Backbone:
C-alpha cells in the first residue's frame, strides 16, 4: 500500500496515489480473472479487499476522510472498470454502502462497522433500486416495516441486490404505516440477520460475478442502532447526487477500454475501419468532456440548487448513452475477432448495457428530466 508520506515526497496527492494503486492492482489481478468472472460468475472478493486496503472505498466519506473527494472514488472505480465492469460495479456498491453510513447521524454506525466498510474489511451493497423507483412513481415500495420496542420488524422481497454474502451488509429503505400516516425509514441491514435469506436464482448475460441475490426478509428485526434516517426525505436529498455521480466511474472505465480496443485494430484493420462513423479519437474527446463535467459536479455533492440536481441527472444520462455507443463502436471496429466467445468486445458490449439499465436507468433518467420540466 502506498503511504501518504511517500506520496507527499513524490509531489502527488494521496488521492492520485490511490487511483494509481487501484489501476496497478487491477492490471495485475483482473486480466487473468475476467473470463472466469464473466463466464462462471466468479466473485473477485480478494480483489475487492485489496482495493479496500489501498483506500479505494474511503476518500469520498464525510468525517472519515479529511475531505469529501468523490472524484477519487470515481477514478478508482474507473481504473477497475478498464478491465472488468463486474468488479467496477462491486466497487460502486461498496462506495454506496459507506456513503450511506457516513452521511447519517448515526454515530454508532460511523464508529462501529463504518471504518471496516471504508477499509474493505466488511463488504456490502445497496438495496435502493426499488425505493429510487418508488420516489419517482415507477413502482411501489417492496419492504414494509412495523414499529416495535427498540426498532422495526421488516418484511418483503427485493429481487436484485448486489455485492452480498452471508457476512455482508446493505442499505435498505422500508415503508412504515402508522395509523394511515406513511413514512420511509432507511437502515443498514446485516445479511446474517435472523429471518433474512439470500436466493441466487437468476443468471444474467453479464455482471454475473457481482453476488447479486434476491433478498427475502421475513419479520427481520432492525434495531434503532442500525437506522441511518427516520424519516428519509431530507437524507435522500443529501445522498442522491453522490449516489448517482459515483456510477460515472463504471462508464468511464469501460469507455477507456473500448477506445483501447479500437486503437488495437488500427494496424491490421485501420484501412477499412477508417470508414466507420465513430473513431477512437472522437470517443476520447467525448470522454474527456464528460470527465471534466462530472469532476465539477462531484466537487459539490451536497449542493441543494435544483439546477445542480438536473445537471447531475443529465451527466449520468450522457454517461450511460456514451457507454453503450462506445461498446457498439468497439464491436464494429473489432469485427469477427470481437464476436468470438472469449472476445473482449462482445463482453464489453454486454457489460455496457448494464450501465444503461442499472438504477437510475436511462428510461428513469429521461422520466426524471421530463418531470422536472413540468
Residues:
Amino acid at each position: 500500500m502506498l503511504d501518504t508520506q511517500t506520496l507527499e515526497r513524490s509531489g502527488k496527492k494521496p488521492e492520485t496515489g490511490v487511483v494509481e494503486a487501484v489501476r496497478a492492482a487491477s492490471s495485475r489481478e483482473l486480466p487473468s480473472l475476467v473470463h472466469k468472472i464473466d463466464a462462471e460468475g466468479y466473485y473477485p472478493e480478494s480483489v475487492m479487499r485489496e482495493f479496500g486496503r489501498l483506500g479505494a472505498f474511503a476518500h469520498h466519506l464525510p468525517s472519515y476522510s479529511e475531505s469529501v473527494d468523490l472524484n477519487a472514488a470515481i477514478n478508482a472505480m474507473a481504473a477497475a472498470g478498464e478491465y472488468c465492469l463486474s468488479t467496477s460495479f462491486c466497487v460502486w456498491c461498496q462506495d454506496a454502502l459507506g456513503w450511506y453510513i457516513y452521511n447519517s447521524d448515526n454515530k454508532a454506525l460511523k464508529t462501529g462497522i463504518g471504518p471496516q466498510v471504508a477499509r474493505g474489511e466488511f463488504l456490502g451493497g445497496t438495496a435502493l433500486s426499488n425505493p429510487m423507483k418508488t420516489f419517482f412513481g415507477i413502482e411501489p415500495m417492496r419492504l414494509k416495516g412495523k414499529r416495535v420496542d427498540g426498532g422495526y420488524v421488516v418484511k418483503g422481497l427485493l429481487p436484485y441486490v448486489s455485492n452480498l454474502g452471508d457476512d455482508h451488509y446493505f442499505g435498505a429503505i422500508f415503508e412504515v404505516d402508522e395509523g394511515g400516516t406513511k413514512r420511509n425509514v432507511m437502515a443498514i441491514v446485516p445479511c446474517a440477520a435472523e429471518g433474512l435469506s439470500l436466493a441466487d436464482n437468476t443468471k444474467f448475460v453479464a455482471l454475473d460475478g457481482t453476488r447479486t441475490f434476491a433478498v427475502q426478509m421475513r419479520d427481520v428485526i432492525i434495531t434503532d442502532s442500525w437506522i441511518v434516517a427516520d424519516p428519509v426525505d431530507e437524507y435522500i436529498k443529501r445522498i442522491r447526487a453522490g449516489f448517482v455521480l459515483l456510477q460515472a466511474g463504471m462508464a468511464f472505465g469501460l469507455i477507456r477500454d473500448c477506445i483501447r480496443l479500437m486503437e488495437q485494430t488500427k494496424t491490421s484493420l485501420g484501412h477499412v475501419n477508417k470508414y466507420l462513423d465513430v473513431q477512437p479519437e472522437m470517443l476520447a474527446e467525448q470522454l474527456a468532456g464528460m470527465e471534466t463535467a462530472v469532476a465539477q459536479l462531484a466537487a459539490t455533492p451536497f449542493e441543494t440548487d435544483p439546477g445542480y440536481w438536473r445537471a447531475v441527472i443529465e451527466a449520468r444520462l450522457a454517461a450511460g448513452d456514451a457507454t453503450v455507443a462506445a461498446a457498439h463502436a468497439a464491436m464494429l471496429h473489432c469485427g469477427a475477432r470481437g464476436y468470438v466467445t472469449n472476445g473482449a468486445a462482445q463482453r464489453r458490449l454486454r457489460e455496457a448495457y448494464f450501465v444503461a439499465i442499472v438504477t437510475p436507468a436511462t428510461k428513469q433518467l429521461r422520466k426524471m428530466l421530463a418531470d422536472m420540466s413540468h
About this structure: The first strand starts at residue 124 and ends at 126. The two ends are 50 Å apart (CA to CA).
